[in-house]
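Our consortium's second objective concerns turning raw sequence data into structural hypotheses that experimental partners can test. To show how far this objective has progressed, the report includes one record in full. It was chosen at random from the queue rather than selected for favorable results. The single chain below, 235 residues long, was entered without modification.
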Amino acid sequence: MYINSDYFLQQKKLVKQLEDSFMNRVHKSTVVEMQKDYVHDDQICLTSVVFIPDDISQKIMSDVIEKLKKTEPHHYFYLPESMHVTIKNIRTINKPPVFSETDINKVNELFNEIIPQFPIFEFTVEDVLMFPTSLSIMGYSDETLQKLVYALDEGLQKIGVPDNKKYFSTSVFWGNITICRFAKNPQIAFINEVQKMRDVKIGKFKVEKVQVITCNAVCHPASRRIVGKYDLGKE
């Protein structure tokens, strides 16, 4: 089922540690601040993502989002076409942006060079986690993701556009599909619903194409600019 089950277990272990750290209010990774209007938020990031296929996004909608909307509809729930896994963040959201057009061009060239060197791989989508200001579903993979992140991170350092995000782990990586950003602190009924979904299993999908984009915190289509698209497994 997994090319390297040890790496899958490492991912699961780190996700549990991350979950516990947020429960204990110890934040070791970057947290997006709560917003009143996520759609029109004009803070912009530069990042690389994989947009998830329709069958996975629709299952997330039916099995998770629609149920949570009934409890607290005032939060921002992601549109199916905005759901994605971040492969490698480049520059976090800010106004004004902390990157330039020159940076964007450098990143585009780098990804054109690196991404085709890596094989197609797979995400297994399961486990709902509550973060301080958001809700996400995890995406577990084999070590291809780890090797890809290392290569991109090294490349970004060399071109002078280093990733400025803080991470819980700098050696074990997994996918994170944000599905909800909070408008205010959730109440106990919402939290209880999330806990019921903790071990939900959504499905699997193959990662065949990575995109570099600029967008706001919810990757709203109106905020999104596609810098480039890069196919895996071309070399």
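The partners drew two points from this record. The chain has a mean pLDDT of 93. The longest strand covers residues 84-94. Both points have been shared with the crystallography group to help prioritize constructs.
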